[in-house]
């Protein structure tokens, strides 16, 4: 679908998780910078590097149409929290975004809906745009509880600072599709995205909900990106595995050109 027909500008976001060293990151940035300089993309581009890489990635991508984000942040503004990173530190290092509520954080670190909401509030206090991840597990889908889970996660996430909308994005990431190679069909993604946009309308008003990008995440590849982005409420992608390879990620970016 050409960008001119889309109500929202798509976003392609790369979540590197705990991958890539400095030399790999530098090569990735060079390839993405050169490609986007050669021809502008119809999609906005965001990259979430590991914390030690953020400043170098920001420097390598200076002047490129790419924003940087932190993969996590602490709910408090500063203090005695060994090993944690604050929203202000992310901003200072060059970030514009913060990933909040990724299922790996919810699972590995026991992050509750309330913790995710507090992190969203911390990001907004520092002017970072939260990219809020939500999605059901395989068991929840099998039990027919997908919409109940999405509604709960969305309600909790927006309990604080809903007035800041639309300075945030949602990422629908069904847990069963993350890193499994089992991508949601375009129909499943569209159904969940439409549900989220409707519920968002109830929380912040339809007009503002219509402006919020809702990304899909879960085993997105160069082969399935075009069919997913063709759906009306799929406004781009949050990509893990396939984002580590600059060429694959560029193909995903350009799926909305
Ligand atoms: C993710 O971790 O946000 C993700 C979607 O991972 P993958 O693309 O590897 O499924």
The arrangement of helices and strands along the chain is: EHEHEHEHHEHHEHHEHEH
Q: Biggest sheet, open or closed, and with what strands and sense?
A: 8 strands, parallel, barrel
The total count of strands amounts to: 8
Give the DSSP E fraction (strand runs of 2 or more residues). 15-25%
Descriptive labels:
257 residues, alpha/beta, eight-stranded parallel beta barrel, binds phosphoenolpyruvate
Q: What can you see in these coordinates?
A:
This protein is of the alpha/beta class and 257 residues long. Helices cover 40% and strands 15% of the residues. It contains eleven helices and eight strands. An eight-stranded parallel barrel has the order 1-2-3-4-5-6-7-8, surrounded by six helices. β1, α1 and β2 (44-48) form a beta-alpha-beta unit. α5 runs parallel beside α7 (146-157). The longest helix has 19 residues, at 186-204. The termini are close together. The structure holds phosphoenolpyruvate.
